[in-house]
Amino acid sequence: MKYVKILFAVALVFTICSAFSIKKKGEKKPVYVFGVSASFTDTIVYYTNVQLLDSVHLDNNGFLPHRELYSYQLKNYLEYNAGLPNRTCMIYFSENKSKLDKEQNNILSKYKKAKSVKLDLIPNDKFRFTKVEME
After folding, report:
1. Strand partners, 89
2. Cβ(51)–Cβ(124) under 8 Å?
3. Residue 50, exposed/middle/buried by CB under 10 A (0-12, 13-18, 19+)?
4. Sign of torsion over alpha carbons 55, 60, 62, 64
5. Could you tell me if residue 39 is inside a domain?
6. 132 pLDDT exceeds 90?
7. How many C-beta atoms lie closer than 10 Å to residue 59's C-beta?
8. Is residue 24 part of a domain?
9. Is residue 93 in a domain?
10. Based on the structure, what is the number of domains in the chain?
11. Which pLDDT tens digit goes with each residue over 97-113?
12. How far apart are the first and last CA of the chain?
C-alpha cells in the first residue's frame, strides 16, 4: 500500500508538471524576424528592427516556410529602392521575441567591433517584411 501511494504521488506530480509544459496541438505562436544586409564592397551594414510576421507560423521542423523569399524582399528593397546592388541579405527568425532581440544585439555587436563598419538601420516606415503568398 505504501508503494501505491508513492507511485500515485509521483504520477500526480508528473501529470501536473507536464500539463504546463506541453504545447497545445494546433497552437501556433507568432513569428518574429529581422534582416541584415552586408556587402564585400561597402563598409555600411544595413539592418532592420525585429518585426512581427502576421499570419506566419514555423513548420513542423521549426523553420520559417519560404525563408529565402524573405531575404529576397530585403535584397530587392535595397537594390531597387535604395540603389544598393550586390548585397548579401540574411534573415533571422524566432517565435521568441526576446531571444531574437538578444540574437540581433549579438550580431550587431560583432559588426560594431570592426571600426571600419558603419551600421545603418532601415526604419519600419521604409521597409517591412510581408507574408509570402505561394500559389
Report:
1. 37
2. yes
3. middle
4. negative
5. yes
6. no
7. 10
8. no
9. yes
10. 1
11. 999 999 999 999 999 99
12. 63
Cell of 30: 507568432
Residue 133 lies in a domain: no
Q: What is the DSSP string of 102-122?
A: HHHHHHHHHHHHSTT-EEEEE
Q: Which residue has the cell 524573405?
A: 70
Q: What is the pLDDT of residue 104?
A: 96
Residues 80-88, mean pLDDT to the nearest whole number: 93
pLDDT band at 82 (very low <50, low <70, confident <90, very high): very high
Q: In the structure grid, which three cell numbers stand for residue 21, read together? A: 509544459
Give the start-end residues of each E strand in the chain: 31-38, 44-48, 51-53, 88-94, 118-122
**DSSP state, 131?**
P
> Which residue do the cell numbers 517565435 mark?
95
Residue 78 CB: number of other CB atoms within 10 A?
21
Phi and psi dihedrals of 106, rounded to 5?
-65, -45
Cell of 87: 548585397
Q: 36: domain range?
A: 31-122
113-116: long-range contacts, CB 8 A cutoff, minimum separation 24: 116/43
Nine-digit cell at 128?
Answer: 517591412
